[in-house]
Design goal:
201 residues, alpha/beta, Rossmann fold, 5 helices, 5 strands, LpoB, Penicillin-binding protein activator LpoB
Length: 201
């Protein structure tokens, strides 16, 4: 094996090492420069933030006194009508978190689309001799929801010359469960423009 061949092998190894494709951390403040035609963290954050601002400033919600008992809220579900796999819980939890922080709402996971299985499991040990019955949860302690948060995320793609426009609609609705009346609803729009080769799913 001659020296020239060994030299070539060493140089090739160094080039490969220098072109490493190892992942790197990106600060959320800088991550907008890596956006795509699909929905990302910033889009969900904006949709949730704009929706919460609209909800908490609405006349109906402003009439709910923070000094009174908070209203119990359930998540009935958000339909994902896009071409992408989206965890809608990221959107609804951000909205309901800010609703709770306002002091006017409490979130129940006893019912709804995001029902916590642990609630039923914790009650299943009643009358089980293996458990100290003084520590089990008695009947009639769950709080029924008074309001329901529901919504839908819609995607529409349109070709504009050599480019692709993708419109996203975030629709959220707050319903009074006793009357069945919609007390608030809002729509947040996010529009992106890219090349026809861009993929938005």
């Amino acid at each position: 094996m001659n020296k020239r061949f060994l030299y070539g092998v060493v140089i090739s190894a160094l080039v490969v090492a220098g072109c490493s494709t190892s992942p790197q951390y990106i600060d959320t403040a800088d991550s907008k420069s890596y956006t795509s035609m699909g929905l990302d963290y910033h889009d969900i954050e904006k949709a949730a933030s704009d929706s919460v601002q609209s909800l908490l400033s609405s006349g109906y919600v402003r009439k709910i006194s923070s000094a009174g008992s908070p209203k119990v809220l359930m998540i009935s579900g958000v339909v994902n009508d896009t071409m992408q796999t989206i965890d809608t819980d990221q959107l609804t939890r951000k909205v309901t978190r800010d609703m709770r922080n306002s002091g006017k709402f409490l979130l129940t996971l006893a019912v709804g689309d995001k029902k916590d299985k642990g609630i039923s499991m914790g009650r299943s040990v009643r009358d089980d001799d293996e458990f100290d019955q003084h520590t089990t949860i008695e009947k009639g302690t769950l709080k029924a929801p008074e309001y329901s948060l529901s919504g839908k995320i819609v995607q529409k793609n349109t070709k504009v010359g050599s480019k692709q426009r993708t419109d996203y609609y975030f629709l959220l609705t707050l319903t009074n469960l006793k009357s069945g009346l919609v007390v608030w609803d809002d729509e947040v729009n996010i529009i992106k423009l890219g090349s026809n080769s861009s993929v938005s799913w």
